[in-house]
């Protein structure tokens, strides 16, 4: 019994450490989705199916202009409802695998803008194309997750992804293949919101490209936050907007809230690498295959990002 108690404590501690070790925004999104789905499941198990259906009817996204205008909360709330265990499991697993390095690279606020921007954008594109397809209520985080997957593939295009029964596939090819599948089956009656997937992927691409061009969503959020507090931002490095802190187009440093002008560019230590680029990339990819992405040092992660862009 004592040994079993020690095992339970060890497992619980490891689980807690793993959860707390995740970036804060990703951690909260995963927790909220899982908790809401557990509540849905418990209600269904104890005869509360009518309640669950009412919640979906109230908070799911309905691709109708009148409903979207009068009930705009649906553009966000639909992302936290799921229809089955597989539905929520696949969405959260993809988000966990690919969202973590994206948030670590961009920061929590920029991560949240891309995540929710992709989810909302996917719903709006579904709304635009609803006259050409069957308009049914939509639930699930798939649009936001597809946007995050595109962001991951843009940031780390050559990182190999291991899937069951398949050889390692570079992130850029894997994500492109998933998008191609949705395009092929866009007219199928399989109850999958493929327009939302494609719309989320498109907005993930657009939002990250804007970030590369110098648009800092982190700064925008801070400015909105300060306005609500009725005071101007002080002592914040993001509010200075100095030329020294402006990143080059495509760099991952946090830039000001507008594109960099002129020929100014920030030089990082990764950009010094010249002749041995391919050798360094091969070494880092080999390390990932042995110990995973988390086995990389912060310097190796930055170097991987820079080399991936150049190759």
Structural account:
- The chain has 311 residues and is mainly alpha-helical.
- It folds into two domains: 190 residues, Rhomboid-like (Rhomboid-like fold); 45 residues, no CATH class.
- 63% of the residues lie in helices and 1% in strands.
- A hairpin with a 7-residue loop joins strand 1 and strand 2.
- Helix 8 runs parallel beside helix 10.
Please name the defining characteristics of this protein.
14 helices; two-stranded antiparallel sheet; 2 domains; about 300 residues; mainly alpha; globular; 2 strands; disordered N terminus
**What general form does the structure show?**
globular
Give the tally of β-strands.
Answer: 2
Which percent bin holds the helix content?
A: 55-70%
Count of helical stretches: 14
Q: Mean pLDDT score, rounded? A: 79
Spatial separation of the terminal alpha carbons: 56 Å
Any idea of the CATH class of the largest domain?
A: Mainly Alpha
Side-by-side strand order of the widest sheet: 1-2
How many distinct domains? Answer: 2
What is the N-to-C succession of helices and strands?
Answer: HHHHHHHHEEHHHHHH
In the CATH scheme, what's the topology name of the largest domain?
Rhomboid-like fold
Based on CA atoms alone, the radius of gyration comes out at 21 Å
The main β sheet shows up as:
2 strands, antiparallel
Relevant CATH superfamily of the largest domain: Rhomboid-like
Provide the low-confidence segments as ranges: 1-7, 235-275
CATH architecture of the largest domain: Up-down Bundle
Structural class: mainly alpha
Fraction in beta strands: under 5%
Main location: membrane
GO cellular component, one term: membrane
Membrane topology: Multi-pass membrane protein
Protein name: Rhomboid family intramembrane serine protease
């Amino acid at each position: 019994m004592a040994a079993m108690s020690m095992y339970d404590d060890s497992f619980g501690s490891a689980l807690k450490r793993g959860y707390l070790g995740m970036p804060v925004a990703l951690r909260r999104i995963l927790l909220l989705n899982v908790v809401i789905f557990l509540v849905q499941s418990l209600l269904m198990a104890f005869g509360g199916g009518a309640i669950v259906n009412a919640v979906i009817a109230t908070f799911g996204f309905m691709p109708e202009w009148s409903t979207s205008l009068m009930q705009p909360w649906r553009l966000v709330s639909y992302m936290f409802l799921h229809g089955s265990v597989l539905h929520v499991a696949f969405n959260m697993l993809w988000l966990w695998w690919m969202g973590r390095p994206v948030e670590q690279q961009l920061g929590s606020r920029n991560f949240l803008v891309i995540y929710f921007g992709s989810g909302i954008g996917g719903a709006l594109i579904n709304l635009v194309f609803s006259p050409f397809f069957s308009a049914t209520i939509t639930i699930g985080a798939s649009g936001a997750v597809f946007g995050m997957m595109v962001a991951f593939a843009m940031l780390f295009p050559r990182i190999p992804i291991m899937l069951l029964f398949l050889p390692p596939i570079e992130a850029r090819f894997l994500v492109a293949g998933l998008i191609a599948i949705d395009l092929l089956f866009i007219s199928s009656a399989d109850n999958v919101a493929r327009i939302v997937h494609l719309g989320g992927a498109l907005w993930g691409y657009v939002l990250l490209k804007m970030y590369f061009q110098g648009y800092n969503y982190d700064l925008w959020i801070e400015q909105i936050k300060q306005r609500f507090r009725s005071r101007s931002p002080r002592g914040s490095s993001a509010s200075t907007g100095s030329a020294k802190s402006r990143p080059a187009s495509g760099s991952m440093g946090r830039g000001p809230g507008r594109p960099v002008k002129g020929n100014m560019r920030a030089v990082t230590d990764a950009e010094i690498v010249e002749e041995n680029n391919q050798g360094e990339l091969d070494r880092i990819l080999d390390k990932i295959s042995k110990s995973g992405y988390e086995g990389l040092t912060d310097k190796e992660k930055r170097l991987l990002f820079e080399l991936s862009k150049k190759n």
